[in-house]
Amino acid sequence: MQHDFDEAYWEQHWQAHPARGPGSMRTNPPNPYLAREVEDLRPGTALDAGCGAGAEARWLAEHGWQVTAADISAEALAGAAERAAASGADRVEWIQADLGVWEPEARFDLVTTHYAHPAMPQLEFYDRIAGWVAPGGTLLIVGHLHGHDGHGQDGHGHGHDHEHGPPAEASVTAAAVAGRLEATDWEVVTAEEAQRGLPAPGGREVTLYDVVVRATRRR
Ligand SMILES: C[S@@+](CC[C@H](N)C(=O)[O-])C[C@H]1O[C@@H](n2cnc3c(N)ncnc32)[C@H](O)[C@@H]1O
Predict the structure, then answer these.
(1) What percent of the chain has a predicted confidence (pLDDT) above 70?
(2) Pocket perturbation via mutation, ligand 1, pick of 11, 26, 51 by most ligand atoms within 8 A of CB
(3) CATH number for the domain harbouring residue 38
(4) Number of domains into which the chain is organized
(5) What pLDDT is attached to residue 1?
(6) Per-residue pLDDT averaged across 6-18, rounded?
(7) Among residues 75, 42, 76, which one has the least CA distance to residue 56?
(8) Which UniProt keywords are given for this protein, alphabetically ordered (predicted)?
(9) pTM higher than 0.90
(10) Is residue 90 exposed (0-12), middle (13-18) or buried (19+ Cβ within 10 Å)?
């Protein structure tokens, strides 16, 4: 199915999404690649771009980061802020923004995104958020792997209907993402394609096919 991944689409998505239960995006645990890639970094300022239900933003706050968590969906942010308040994660500023046009006031020590796919072309979105990393800072992109968009991910709860995985235009390869990062400006630390299981509604487990790219900005 074709979608415009605009504010109306995401708002409707979050309003329709179940509040809890296995596979609910609202209660999924933090993305495991975040802890793996970030836990050895010295905490500073962080942007979670397309934070959704906020699990990654909360994890960052709980690990000492001063977090800006941005999403286009007011519905997603309301739930995320509520859960953060309940868990005492108070180092998060939740902002509603279309990251296709938003500009930060300052650059961040860490910019991360997990499966955000806006209306703009995916790789151009990654270019855009990469520009918000401060010198010496880190970019961490976790995205959907291209070529696994039809089967195997159905029901994974990352914003797609249950018969189809993420659409082709929202998926990438590790080489394509890393290839956007000029060697003069970036040291690519991680560029991998991986798969993992995630609990899904009905007691099932689905397989997520992911791209994980971490890079450090040289200047
Ligand atoms: C598939 S969900 C992933 C949410 C969360 N990061 C996670 O891993 O569970 C994609 C998120 O990106 C947000 N998003 C999409 N387009 C956006 C845009 N232009 N600006 C900000 N957020 C956007 C959506 O509202 C949604 O919460």
Answers:
(1) 88
(2) 51
(3) 3.40.50.150
(4) 1
(5) 53
(6) 90
(7) 76
(8) Oxidoreductase, Transferase
(9) yes
(10) exposed
161-219 residue pLDDT tens: 434 568 889 999 999 999 999 999 999 999 999 999 988 878 889 899 999 999 999 99
CA of 158 to the centre of ligand 1 (A): 9
* Whether the Cβ atoms of residue 193 and residue 145 lie closer than 8 Å to each other: yes
Q: Is residue 173 part of a domain?
A: yes
Tell the residue nearest (CA) to atom 17 of ligand 1.
Answer: 118
Hunting for tokens 């933090």 — which residue is that? 30
Query: Is residue 208 lining ligand 1, measured as CB closer than 6 Å?
Result: no
pLDDT of res. 156: 40
- Domain membership of residue 25 (yes or no) is no
- Report d(CA 33, CA 182) in Å as an integer: 23
Alpha carbon of 134 to ligand 1 centroid (Å): 22
2 assigned to some structural domain? no
137: containing domain: 7-20+30-217
pLDDT, position 22: 62
CA distance 205 to 196: 10
Ligand 1: nearest atom to the Cα of 100:
19
Look at residue 104 and tell me if it is in a domain. yes
Q: pLDDT for 65-96, tens place per residue?
A: 999 999 999 999 999 999 999 988 889 999 99
